[in-house]
Automatic annotation (TrEMBL):
<dbReference type="Pfam" id="PF03928">
    <property type="entry name" value="HbpS-like"/>
</dbReference>
<feature type="signal peptide">
    <location>
        <begin position="1"/>
        <end position="17"/>
    </location>
</feature>
<keyword id="KW-0732">Signal</keyword>
<dbReference type="InterPro" id="IPR038084">
    <property type="entry name" value="PduO/GlcC-like_sf"/>
</dbReference>
<dbReference type="InterPro" id="IPR052517">
    <property type="entry name" value="GlcG_carb_metab_protein"/>
</dbReference>
<dbReference type="InterPro" id="IPR005624">
    <property type="entry name" value="PduO/GlcC-like"/>
</dbReference>
<protein>
    <recommendedName>
        <fullName>Heme-binding protein</fullName>
    </recommendedName>
</protein>
Length: 168
């Protein structure tokens, strides 16, 4: 009986915790999670763009926790690109979509404020090709693309993200 009373008293507190904003990114209730259908749609749009400019890409989609939701390795994509694409997407997810992977580049150069950041979290990738995906004000996941030049990767990631939402 005492246990249940305690639980009932605790529940509103848990609810308030979900609603409170600690100013360190999106609140849990503001987040959404990409569906597998959305992830496939983003991959197809990115792959179409990649084929159009004749570059073989590896394309990873992760949820807001950085877990892989969908992946496509286009024929002849570099073997190394699987890991790079996945880590670009995870890098974006690790900061709630506040930065593209390219947005972390300057700060991680020698002498930069975040120098060494890429060595955390079992390896991050801090150059272009990782892009957040937002729907409304919700960060639902991220796309990472690797295989072309950084400019190609970034453009293809953006095309994938924009097929289902926005990039900011
Ligand atoms: C492919 O390229 C053509 C010509 O530039 C463009 O009109 C078309 O929209 C592109 N399609 C995709 C999926 O990027
Ligand atoms: C990085 O630095 C370059 C050169 O100073 C600058 O042109 C560019 O806008 C910076 N990029 C970002 C994302 O801050």
């Amino acid at each position: 009986m005492q246990f249940f009373t305690a639980l009932i008293l605790a529940l509103p507190t848990l609810g308030l915790a979900q609603l409170s904003n600690n100013n360190l990114g999106s609140r849990p209730v503001q987040r959404g999670v990409i569906t597998s259908a959305q992830a496939l749609q983003a991959i197809n749009a990115a792959a179409a763009h990649a084929s159009n400019i004749s570059v073989a890409e590896s394309i990873a989609i992760v949820d807001p926790s950085g877990n892989l939701v969908a992946y496509l390795r286009q024929d002849n994509s570099w073997p190394a690109a699987f890991d790079i694409a996945t880590k670009k997407a995870r890098t974006v997810a690790g900061f709630n979509g506040a930065f593209t992977s390219a947005g972390l580049y300057n700060g991680t150069q020698p002498g930069g404020a975040f120098w060494g950041l890429e060595n955390t979290n079992s390896g991050l990738v801090v150059f272009a090709g990782g892009t957040p995906i937002f729907v409304g004000d919700r960060f639902i996941g991220a796309i990472g693309v690797s295989g072309g030049s950084v400019d190609q990767d970034a453009a293809i990631a953006e095309a994938g993200a924009k097929a289902i939402g926005t990039t900011a």
